[in-house]
Structures are given as structure tokens and as C-alpha cells.
Amino acid sequence: MLMDRFGRTIEYIRLSVTDRCDLRCSYCMPKGFKGFEEPENWLTFDEIARVIGAFTRLGTRRVRLTGGEPLLRRNLPQLAARLSALPGLDDLSLSTNATQLHKHAEALHDAGVRRLNISLDSLRRDCVSELTGSDSLPRVMEGLMAAKAAGFAPIKINMVAMKGVNDGDIEAMVAFCIEHGFVLRLIEAMPVGDTGRAAHFLDLQPVLARLQQQFGLLPQAADLGGGPARYWSTPDGRFTLGLITPISQHFCATCNRVRLSVDGTLYMCLGQEERFELRPLLRAGCSDAELEAAIREAIELKPERHEFRERPGKIVRIMSMTGG
Ligand code: SF4
């Protein structure tokens, strides 16, 4: 197994297949952003399959496809099919803003993707337009319903909860998730990039107390996907809430993941700068054994935790560069 210096097993990799996106969420990619990676530096599907193959041989069993917006990468279902065929890979999932999902839901499900996380911060069309820089809610809804029809389960709604922006929308989102059988995950904004720092941070602990009171939520031990979220459910099981609280209650002690960006950079931590370049090795024709050795060497760099509270100005890169 891949283990870091702090005894944490690295069994999950978040794979960013593009840094491009069709939305400009205010806490992520600034309007007018031009700093995208050159396509010739993107890892090819063959290179991605080699790297993920090496990780699975080293015990990694979960892969999440991310971006930017991953569905902007052409032929993504083909890559998903190759990855889901890798021995040892138990769990292939996708994070998307769902604007393109109505076109790809069936093909992704046929390719072996089983779980979806969908970014949706409000059900108010004007609020979504304001937050994303585009009138995207109708397409997102179309994508959500296509995913439901294609049989994805669970479908999780990722809502970045922000003070004075959409914190008043939480109960409406709970009702929407109960109606459709979706899991709702509330996420605290993180100081990743200037956009992340400008987001109106909302401490989720009081929100949890309020929702526990309203819905009689009970803590869930179940591991709903191997990520950082903690879960609660109603006694009848009709609603499940997840919380991702990197600021008010971080989860670094049990961190099990690293991130691979579109250009082949391995980021050891969302909240730190330690990284390892794999593309030069791949393009120099490294052997599988050399690739595995490089990955082991990279994991040695993994830091203990983020410093979002202590050094909120530290991370300059924006969220879409590492896929969240
Ligand atoms: S901030 Fe870094 S160490 Fe903490 S959970 Fe995220 S990736 Fe892991």
C-alpha cells in the first residue's frame, strides 16, 4: 500500500482531466481568467492510464474524475472505460457542474462511472447566474435528471455554503434532495486562490446543529465514498447530509488522497504547495517500475495538513487547477 510519513494510506486519487470550465464560479475561477495549461502539456489518455495503472498496482482503489469541468474533455467516456477496467480499481466517480451531463450521462454510466458529485449552490436561477457567471440552472437541472434516469447512485449535490450569499437556500436544497433522493453535501469555502479567499465563509457547525434539530439527523458511520465528508441521516433514511468542514473541523489526520492535474503534476495536498512532476518522466519513456518508484518518492513529500487558518494567503493557485 502507498503510505505517507504520517501513516496515512493513500488509496484515492483525484484526477483532473482539464483545467477548462464553461462556468466562472465566484469562489473558483476569476472572470476573464486566461492562465490555462497548453493542450500539448495535457496528459494523453495513454499517459493517464499509465499513471493510474501504477497507482492501482500500488494499492490505490478510488479515482475521481475532476476538472475544471471534466465533461469538456473530449471522449471522456472512453477514458472512463479504460480506467474502470484496471485491476484493483473499485470505485470510479465524477465531479461535474452538470451543464453537459445530459449529453454524456448514459455513456459515462456504461463506461463504469457509478457515483456523481454535482456542484449546485442554489435553486434560485438569479443566484446561480450571479455565482457562476452564466444562466446555467436549466442545463444543470436537465443534467441532474439525466443522471438520475441513467441510474447513478448515490448522486450527491455539492453546495458551497456562503454567508449572505446562499446560506438562506439550505433548507430549500434539503427539500429538493429529499424529493429526488439526492445526498446533500455542504462545503465550507477554502482560501485557495484569491477567489477562494474572497468567498463569504460560513462556519457550518451552527448550520449542522440547526439541521439536526429540524430533521432529527443521526450520525452515520457509513463511508459514503472515502472522501473527507462526515454524514448524518434522518431516522427514516430518506435524507442524508454530508459536511465538508476544512476550516471549522479539518480532517487532515485521515487524509487518503492526492491530486493529479491535467499537466501531470501530482499535488500532495490541496492546502499546500508540495508537488511532483510526472509528465517529464512519462515523456522520457520511463519504465513501469521507475514510474512506481517516482510515485513512492512523491508520496514522501505529502504534508501533514493544510494551514488555511494560520496562513490563509498561502495558496495562490485556483481550485480549478487541481480539481478541488
Ligand atoms: S488539506 Fe491536504 S492534508 Fe488536509 S485533507 Fe486536504 S489534501 Fe489532505
CATH superfamily: Aldolase class I
Helical element count?
10
Radius of gyration from CA coordinates: 19 Å
- The end-to-end distance, rounded to whole angstroms, is 24 Å
| Nearest-integer average pLDDT | 96
How big a fraction of the residues is strand?
A: 15-25%
Number of strands: 12
Largest sheet, if any? Answer: 12 strands, mixed
What characteristic shape results from the CA principal axes? globular
Number of separate structural domains:
1
**CATH fold call:** TIM Barrel
Question: Helix and strand succession?
Answer: EHEHEHEHHEHEHHEEEEEEHH
* Ligand inventory: iron/sulfur cluster
User: Which CATH-level-2 architecture?
Assistant: Alpha-Beta Barrel
Identify the CATH class.
Alpha Beta
Spatial order of strands in the largest sheet: 7-8-9-6-5-4-3-2-1-10-11-12
**Class derived from helix and strand content:** alpha/beta
Approximately how much helix is present in the residues?
25-40%
Unreliable spans:
none
